[in-house]
Structures are given as structure tokens and as C-alpha cells.
Write a structure and sequence with these properties.
This protein is mainly α. It has helices at about 10-45, 50-85. α1 (about 10-45) runs antiparallel to α2 (about 50-85). It is elongated. About 5% of the residues are buried.
């Protein structure tokens, strides 16, 4: 490929980081909705296996905790960058 066709490194990295975060947020959201739906079905009596509901709830909780830790680390890194002198 010619140099004009190749994306800039920073733009490519930014896009992939953004896409990765968006994908992760969508996954967390999906797990949350799935756990909520399964717990509603459990209350209605539509679910026979309570273990599946508990697993879905634990997956949603763990993914949410991971997302919050990632957010905290990103915010810490941003604050450190802002402290740097140019």
C-alpha cells in the first residue's frame, strides 16, 4: 500500500481502543439485561434451573466490577498525564 492509503498509527490505535471499549460496554450491558431478564423469569416461575440465573447474575456483576476498575484506571492515567509538565 502507498503511504497515502495507510492510516496514521495514532488514528488506528485510537479507533481500535475506542472500538474495544465500545464492544466491552455493549457486552456488559448485554450481560446486565440478560441477568435482569432471567431474574424476572425466575420470579414469574418460568425458569426451572436456578443455577443458570445465579450464574448470569454473577457474570453481570463481575463484568460490571471489571468495567468500573477499568474506568478507575483510565481516570488515574488521565490525571497523571494532566500533571505532566510540557
Amino acid at each position: 500500500q502507498s503511504p497515502q492509503q495507510q492510516p496514521k498509527t495514532s488514528e488506528a490505535a485510537e479507533g481500535s481502543f475506542k472500538e474495544t471499549l465500545n464492544g466491552f460496554l455493549k457486552d456488559v450491558n448485554h450481560l446486565q439485561h440478560n441477568a435482569e431478564e432471567m431474574s424476572e423469569n425466575l420470579v414469574k416461575g418460568d425458569v426451572e434451573n436456578i443455577h443458570q440465573v445465579m450464574i448470569a447474575m454473577n457474570q453481570a456483576q463481575t463484568s460490571f466490577q471489571l468495567m468500573m476498575e477499568m474506568r478507575n484506571k483510565i481516570m488515574e492515567a488521565y490525571k497523571e498525564i494532566m500533571k505532566m509538565q510540557v
